[in-house]
Amino acid sequence: MRFVSSGILLLLFVCSCQQRDDAMYQKVKEELSSDFFETLYSNTYYDLLDRIEADGFLQESRTGQYDGMYARTVGAMVPLLLETGELTHAEHLINCVFDAMTTNGMTRVPHVLDRKQYLDKPADSVNNPYRIVGRTDQIDGQAHVILAWAKLALYRGETSFENRTWRIAAALMDRSVTKPYFGLEEKGAIPDLIYNYAFEHSRLVPSSYNLLTQCFVGAALESMIAVAKRRGESDAASRWQQKLDILRAGIEKHFVQNADGKDVYYELLLNENNEHIPFHGMGWVNLSPVAAQWEPLRHDVMVNTVAALRRSIQTWNGIKWMPTDSWPTGEFYGQMIGKGIAWEMEYAAREKEWTRLHEICSMLRIIQHQQPIYMENAYLANGMQQDIYTLTKAELKNLEQGVWKIVDPGNGEQVAWWCWAMARLRKQMRLPVVPKRITPLTADSSRALNKSRHGLIYSYFRSDKNSKPFHWINDVPTMVEPQSQMHVPEALSDETFGLAWKSYIAIDADHDYRFFCYAANSMRVLIDNDIVEQGRAIYLTKGYHAITFQYDHVLPDESIEVYFQQGDQPIREILQPEKLFYSVSTRERSAPPLIDPAIPEIETGESITVSLQAFDSTARIYYTLDGSEPTDNSARYTKPFKIGHATVVKAVAIQEGLERSETALVHYESIPKKMLVTLQYLPHANYTSRGQKTLTDKLTGSLHGRDGRWLGFEGTDFNAVLDLRSIKEVKSVKINFLHDQSAWIFAPVKVYFSLSTDGKKYKPVLQEEFDAVTKAEKSTIKTYEAILREKSARFIRIEAKNAGPMPTWHSGAGGKAWIFVDEIEVATDDQ
Question: What positions does the domain GH29D-like beta-sandwich occupy (predicted)?
Fold first, then answer.
């Protein structure tokens, strides 16, 4: 028997590992060289670059998600531009922030700025300052800008820009490491850490000390020390070095925990009762040393931190993704954040973790496959109002049939970090750092389809009031007309109705297909008249297949989307109109005419004007009003007509050479007069939800102000007048307000209800005034209700007084408070 020495075995093992690493390295390089990643990187990079205006202003959001330019984004943009050699752009970005600060008389970096006030004046005019739209005191954002300035200075050496702006940068550095940020001696403060008055975080927890702030201030100090030494500014270098030494010791003392016998960074310290308590959760903030390129302690602490962070990695349909945040309880956020992905990519590249990088690439192919520009974040959703803020592994199972929804593609800060990580990774793999500019794709005329047959035929059904879920058997549709996509007509307002869409789907290849519905209520998909279980594979042959979608209990403006998946890889494509045909007969069929109004209701005592419209000007429309089937012998439509009672309107379109259309119909029913709502002040454009309908749509808002069910009013009162349309006995009036002071949303300090019969003279029935809110108040929904007896009125006025400027203890002290309003309920004698 022959024995192999342990040394040879070790050598074989090392060689085997090296081969695996080389193979995985090659896979990652192939991924980055693929059309998918070349396009994603190019589109994202040039979308950012092209948004930098001549004076350096960079609009944060291309979608309108955020207003203005966020100064902190400079801290991500400049490192990226240093990698790609766009030094002039880098200088302009920094100069824009400095100019905004100085021309507005500020001694610190503003949170958010907007363009120059007078666009026709010189950009550098002191008499033409930038508009400041966010004055929140965010010391970490200031450190981003200082660090960006220092990195540019160190990269280029001495320049006229450096000489001109050195005093500004140095003064900012001094202010950042003195009171009120550093060296605080107040009760409960930590003098050897940087205090952050308004740290923006995905966690809804109070915190004044976090790892990110410490790292970016530390990195700024280290870089500024290097610049100062080069410039011969020894006093500045010496005092900053003292501050840096204190900060390093403070981080080691307060920001290191022991996890399984290893030193790991804390993410943040919780602020509770003026005490700062270590928080044991893990999230994207733990990767801050990677972004700042400054590790306050020895490298093994960072390695241990990433290992602990990765214990939160989840698997969704075989895709491994890291949640934005996780909690010590094992819960995690059903979201991934753009810069968190970027920072982990940078860490993995430094550590040569090619397998993890390949996992991230595979994940991004799924997340980004329908969006050609990188994201701010993405979250898991299935259409239901499910809270993704704290999920468990068991709850994640409920989202296996869901989809990843992308938020704010092109967001300045998030995508700049990702492009930075991509540029550095590509450089490491000897791929071009500056991407080729890819010409946007245009529609291929050879694939253009007959638009006249595109779309779906939809029917609107009234439900039996006692039936839940909605019953489809033997129902008579209220209307039929073609649509290009599945959506709920805004005019539909009945709480209990359903929609059915019928079409033909074009299948490109024989394969297994899965269908997924993203909708707030029950939805069914039928293929060739058979119900298809969500997520279950069904084998379809190439060609056309009848497809039907049935949706229960719809309310206006709901998001309704259907995704399909070919094969096993969970790339889910939204079902687009070009794959759907309302007619695939050998002889083309006319489209049904449109009947307007779509809302199938006539208020008692009123009349409506009905118009019919053909989708082709050569079509003739014939209609009936008695429920009979229209033919070319029926009345021909020539002009709009009025109806004032319950009526079934049916219509068909007839064209030469085409088959007669399906019958369009609307069953107009008589209903009581509806309450009208008039607002004195319009809601903020970002929080309009469904407009005034939001207040009476029977969808109660949650504790999350962005759930689409609230109207938001910034800095104004809420005043509304309700018109009941006739004098009635009012039994009660109720209204909801959101209170979430961490989001600057405050319940009103005064609420008044008043009644009137003529809309001129009002009598108060409820007057409540409240003390100023305290720092300790939790997020809640506050309901105000008046129970009335024998009170007759036609008009109800609701007045809610805004809390006014933010209190002094709040991070946004002096800023405008918000009022968030949701549901108004009025009970009357005829209900």
Answer: 606-663
* Peptide linkage before 180 cis (omega within 30 of 0): yes
Residue 794, classed as helix, strand or coil, is strand
Residue that wins the pLDDT comparison between 737 and 700: 737
pLDDT tens digit sequence for 181-227: 999 988 889 999 999 988 888 887 788 999 999 999 999 999 999 99
CB atoms within 10 A of CB 495: 12
Distance between CA atoms of 30 and 306, rounded to whole angstroms?
A: 26
459 in Cβ contact with 81 (< 8 Å):
no
Query: How distant, in Å, are the alpha carbons of 69, 111, 743, 804 from that of 818?
Result: 22, 19, 9, 9
Specify the CATH architecture of the domain 676-828.
Sandwich (2.60)
Question: 495 near 521, Cβ under 8 Å?
Answer: no
- Looking at per-residue pLDDT, the higher value among 284 and 672 belongs to 284
371-to-40, 41, 404, 547, 699 alpha-carbon distances in Å: 8, 12, 11, 26, 30
Task: Report how far residue 722's alpha carbon sits from residue 795's, in angstroms, rounded to the nearest whole number.
Answer: 5
pTM over 0.90: no
Q: Give the residue extent of every domain in the chain.
A: 23-377+406-428, 676-828
Indicate if the pLDDT at residue 10 is higher than 90.
Answer: no
Structural contact between residues 828 and 728, judged by C-beta atoms closer than 8 angstroms: yes
Domain 23-377+406-428 falls under CATH 1.20.140.10:
no
Q: In angstroms, rounded to a whole number, what is the distance separating the alpha carbons of residues 471 and 804?
A: 50
671 phi and psi, to 5 degrees?
Answer: -135, 160
